[in-house]
Specification:
The chain has 116 residues and is mainly alpha-helical. It has a domain of 73 residues. The termini are far apart.
Length: 116
């Protein structure tokens, strides 16, 4: 029995997580392989089944030109619910989980300073 060498599955070392595989699939489906980073960003924020079904619905649209598929996809994302929250940007201060701490028997917010 001879094995067809073209049909052998080769693992891509760049796709090391579920989100990376999803982003690669979406960028190839919508003919935007150079915009992989955009699709990776939304792969972390939205549910995989929602993104795949949205991409399939966009591919089924006959009247939509191929160049506009990516823009239409990102415009339709506004209707989907986020599954994960966005990370805070680097410039915003982080708020500690411990809202209050006791100082000298009093309860004060942890981020405020005592007046001298």
């Amino acid at each position: 029995m001879e094995i067809d060498k073209k049909r052998i599955f080769r693992k891509d070392p760049h796709l090391h997580s579920r989100e990376h595989v999803l982003a690669d699939d979406l960028s190839r489906m919508l003919d935007e392989p150079k915009k992989f980073a955009r699709y990776l960003g939304i792969a972390y924020l939205y549910d995989e089944t929602d993104l795949r079904s949205l991409a399939k619905r966009i591919l089924e649209k006959i009247d939509l030109p191929a160049e506009a598929r990516g823009r239409y996809f990102f415009a339709c994302l506004k209707g989907l619910a986020l599954t994960r929250q966005k990370r805070p940007s680097k410039g915003t201060p982080r708020v500690s989980l411990q809202k209050t701490k006791k100082q000298h028997g009093r309860t004060t917010p942890s981020h405020s300073k005592r007046a001298k």
